[in-house]
Amino acid sequence: MIKVGDMLPDVTLMEYHETEGGGCSMGPNPVSVRAASADKTIVLFALPGAFTPTCSAKHLPGYLENQPAFKAAGVDEIWCVSVNDAFVMGAWARDQQTGDKVRMLADGDASFATATGLTLDLTGRGMGLRSNRYSMIVKKGIVMSLNVEAPGKFEVSDAETLLGQL
Q1: Where residue 135 sits, what CATH number does that domain have?
Q2: How many helices (H) and strands (E) does the chain have?
Q3: Residue 4 domain-assigned?
Q4: Range of 90's domain?
Q5: Number of domains in the chain
Q6: Is residue 159 included in any domain, yes or no?
Q7: Does 129 score more than 60 pLDDT?
Q8: pLDDT higher than threshold 90 for residue 90
Q9: By the number of CB atoms within 10 A of the CB, which of 21, 49, 50, 76 ranks highest?
Q10: Which residues does the UniProt record annotate as the domain Thioredoxin (predicted)?
Q11: Which residues are catalytic?
Q12: Cα–Cα distance between 68 and 128 in angstroms, integer?
C-alpha cells in the first residue's frame, strides 16, 4: 500500500470536459498523474463510486464547501478519484456542480487504485473492484499525508480532517 513519502504511481486517469479549451478537447481527456502533480500541492480524495450515498451526500460536498480554505492554505488543486468511467464522473461533476473547484478524475480500470494498493472489493455488492475511501496531501508528486478509512466508515478522509493536516 502507498504510504507517506511515496511518489504517486505513474498511471493515466481520465477527465471529462464539457467544453473545449485550455488545450483540452471536449469529452474524455487523459491526465498523467505524475505530470499533473509534479509541481503542485494537491489534495486528493478517493471514494468507492459516483452517485453513491455517502460519496454524494458527505464526501464530495465537504471538499466543495472547503475549497476556498484549501486554496488559502496553499493547495493548487483538489482531485476526486473514483473507479468509474469519465462519462460517469462528468455527469457526477454536473450534478454536484464541481465547476473548477474539484477535478473529477476517472480511474476506469482501477489502475490507480491497484497501483496505490488501495482497492476495495465490492463484488458481493454488485460493484466489482473499487477504490477504498481515503484522502491525501500530495506535494510535487510525493504523498505527505494519508488517511485511509476502514471498510464502510467515513471518519478520517473528510475535508475538515485534511485541512487540519495542512
Answers
A1: 3.40.30.10
A2: 7, 9
A3: no
A4: 12-165
A5: 1
A6: yes
A7: yes
A8: yes
A9: 50
A10: 2-166
A11: 55
A12: 35
